[in-house]
Write a structure and sequence with these properties.
2 copies of one chain form a homodimer. The first copy, chain A, is an alpha/beta fold. In chain A, about 30% of the residues lie in helices and about 35% in strands.
């Protein structure tokens, strides 16, 4: 149900731009359709029902809304990785660097050590997966913590950029609700992996 | 109920630091206690039941999780204001500048015009209210859009910094679930407004 709703919404409201950019800002990452996110949360709960999830991990900013709604379905807290140091964050941190496809720059990414440890079974949630840089950074942080990556839930995977398939080959259980196989900025056509 | 839960949680897990900093990162803005946020969402729904809310507006990053959970209770979308321009945002924008107490710098803040218009009745949600700079920026954006500020919901107001009372004097309906009247970095004592 959530898959069909999301693909339909991407077809209707998604905008394909030059440079492999798919804008879904009307429902996924500037304005958030919370009812749609709730359907997506229910679907991931169904898909990862056999996994003993203790935390949902995401990265600011656009992952947070999705992760919060998803975490309700699992009854666990969200931890969101922060981009760059702030005066309100002290103590020990897990850190890594992530190159952003959207922002064309490298971010330092941090998670306070007290929020992730060896006892944690983590579901990583994010809105987009392109080349996989953000996800690889989050996986590094989970591994640095000695915690277990139980699964990865992505709203929209750009399948043609290869990041998702590389993660599947490494053995991660990756559940992308919509996988864009190809898209065309001139015609606006979007083809999903079936 | 949500008020008592939140005050109790701030007393137990909040950390008072020098420079008027209250750290609530274990449940409100780095790790998110989604069950607590859900209670807070139900409370704001009760408090603003008479208002015809069409959108919840917040600002990235730490407001987004709370706003998403709150918006579920109202059955409306979230729009989050973004700090600085990204290549995925084009078209016309409402813009303002916000000085961050936490980050000690000035941000450009933007909302795409297509997500806020004269027909909108807006509930502004944020995790913290200190001097009110972030809220004033969001109010400016709502007014620039010709929309109506129906109310403001804040998790933790630092009452002694005056931003909240200034907004109340200007006639805004501001519902802060916990108002810190004073706090002491040496003893760790936190006194709430009753």
């Amino acid at each position: 149900m959530a898959v069909e709703l999301l693909e339909e919404r991407i077809r209707r409201d998604g905008v394909v731009k030059e440079g492999n950019v798919l804008k879904v800002d009307s429902f996924l990452n500037h304005q958030l359709d919370v009812a749609l996110l709730d359907e997506m949360g229910a679907e991931w709960k169904r898909l990862f029902a056999d996994r003993p999830i203790t935390k949902v991990l995401t990265i600011e900013a656009s992952g947070i809304g999705i992760a919060a709604i998803v975490a309700r379905h699992f009854g666990v807290p969200v931890v969101f990785a922060k981009k760059a140091q702030s005066v309100n964050l002290d103590g020990e941190m897990y850190t890594t660097k992530i190159e952003s496809f959207t922002h064309k720059r490298v971010f330092d990414v941090i998670v306070a050590k007290k929020f992730l440890g060896p006892e944690d079974h983590v579901l990583i949630i994010d809105d987009f997966l392109a080349n996989g840089c953000a996800l690889n950074g989050l996986i590094e942080i989970v591994e640095e913590a000695g915690a277990t990556v139980e699964g990865i839930g992505i709203a929209v995977e750009k399948g043609f950029q290869g990041g998702g398939d590389a993660l599947r080959e490494r053995g991660y259980r990756l559940e992308s609700l919509a996988i864009v196989e190809s898209m065309d900025a001139d015609s606006g056509e979007i083809v999903f992996r079936s």
